[in-house]
Request: fold
Amino acid sequence: MIPITLKAQDSKSLARVTEFTLRGVKIETPQFMPVGTRGAVKTLDSADLQALGFPIILGNTYHLYLKPGIEVLREHGGLHNFTGFSGAMLTDSGGFQIFSLEGMRKLDEQGVTFQSVYDGSKHRFEPASVIQIQRAIGADIMMCLDECPPGDAPRSYIEKSMELTHRWAIQCVEEFTRDPGRQHLFGIFQGGVHQDLRERSLKFIQDLPFSGIAIGGLSVGESREDMSRVLQHVGPLMDPHRLHYLMGVGTPHDFLTAIECGVDLFDCVMPTRVARHGRAFTANGQVNLLNSRFRTQLSAIDSHCDCRICQNYSASYVHHLLKMKETTGQRLLTWHNLAFFKNFLKNAREAIGAGQFLEFRDHWLERL
Amino acid sequence: MIPITLKAQDSKSLARVTEFTLRGVKIETPQFMPVGTRGAVKTLDSADLQALGFPIILGNTYHLYLKPGIEVLREHGGLHNFTGFSGAMLTDSGGFQIFSLEGMRKLDEQGVTFQSVYDGSKHRFEPASVIQIQRAIGADIMMCLDECPPGDAPRSYIEKSMELTHRWAIQCVEEFTRDPGRQHLFGIFQGGVHQDLRERSLKFIQDLPFSGIAIGGLSVGESREDMSRVLQHVGPLMDPHRLHYLMGVGTPHDFLTAIECGVDLFDCVMPTRVARHGRAFTANGQVNLLNSRFRTQLSAIDSHCDCRICQNYSASYVHHLLKMKETTGQRLLTWHNLAFFKNFLKNAREAIGAGQFLEFRDHWLERL
Reply:
């Protein structure tokens, strides 16, 4: 179990600030984890992430298992050494990627068989094997294999799938317990947008000895109202002594709702992916830097931002690099967007600490 | 004129160490200038170049004139502010790019008319106008417009072209002298691989009040022997009180020959371009990091290299990123190659200072 310290609890909502330590690194929540899909957060290296100040990042088991492969990671002594990142790491189970591979994967009671997107070769993930893979990767936090059904699946399928995820969770715990080492395991509960299923699934997962509880199966196509309703329902039911992780979410707007419901951890490709398409997060919402109005803007992308990019470069410069398809432009914008996310959550923590989270939320809901 | 201090002169060759100051930045030669084509050295930003320790970089007038355009650069107060680079800058005249545009440009006595590669629009460069453009760009060192004939052009064409370059040089000096500000102007001499033409051209250019003498029209397809022969011929004839710049060169191998002939400054896209194709410069020559033998190489790209990449990442990691087409891989390799060039020239300066340049040359010729 990961010991967590409650540093602040909002009196009018479930919003909270916690602190825990992994690999000697202090992590305060609410916290955002940048996604290092294939051993790098796209356009950045480990020195950049450390300069940006992220204490924890996410790696994708599915991609890393295929390339460079577990053998290479094992020879390096794990993903930390491979990437040179000295902070903490969480790996997903690969389930989300596999279940996105419509037509290239086959599910059964024991696991899932799938084809590599790289060379079409056949592979199989089972609850115990994904734990073994994540053990070799050396992540500080590992995730259980779950089935992640699409947002528009019928209730009967969501329920059946949820029960399979529960049986797999038990197998993951068994394999994990055999040799926990210094690693930790999070469980994932499912249930789609159905409150009774969510409640059942949360209870089942929470009864197992996980260090953290992850909310799976949100941000998969459901409406913002549905996501909000589920979070408001499960928030008060989540064990306050464990970490709460909302997988694959999201935007500053989503963070506000989730933090209010007691969520501690987030990850999402959003800030890095949209950066590569020229989109910047700013204090006034998203803007497209490719827009010609930025051609001559001498001021920064976001005049409220104290990141290295906004302190040193004009929006005009970033616009020019993006227009010219210079990868430096994508890199500068990736940096800014991650800094924006980091600052947003730092400000959220400070607001909670000051007993003003709802004011913070309302202030931002107005702006975004 | 740029005052230069002779710090060391090799007794057995023309190799020398000089120092000069531009924009408050001390520059020691022999020195390599990374090429920031469109306002960025590809995959890097200005903070990277400063961390790498380059005191001077090169910008391409042709590209910058077309995009972002002089108006945008002027609004920023010049290329330094636009890119955030606080070191010195040299801009080429755009001639080399225009004369590479076979079929898209038309030369006459007064200048050259060409089409933009971006939108096909028509533009014209004349000797005086390229000085005005470089004035707006704000480069610390500007270059004259020259015609750069192909390496395989007949002698008669080379001679005619050289004479045009001479007439243009006078016009560049006239326009420059009108308002030198804090900028400096280098002349370019031509003459292909013909020693008598080279001699005439050098004398003509050297008789004009340029701060530096650039050797143009080499590294345009002639053999290494021809380049070496020309350099050995012109080396002793170049004014030792001015800077000697070999344009568009090159590789460590080329540097050795050129330094021996008294060259001070170099620029080339080679280290950055080959990096994007997976090629690394090492103490044992060039290697292709995409080669499968690097898949499991736990040691650095170059075990002799003290750059940040070789100190922090395995060759296996860089191989993986390049294979996955992650731009981070191109960036790490660009960084390494530039660090290799920088260290190579630093070591050359030290060898000259220690009176051991020819030993240094022979040591490297054996390895490369």
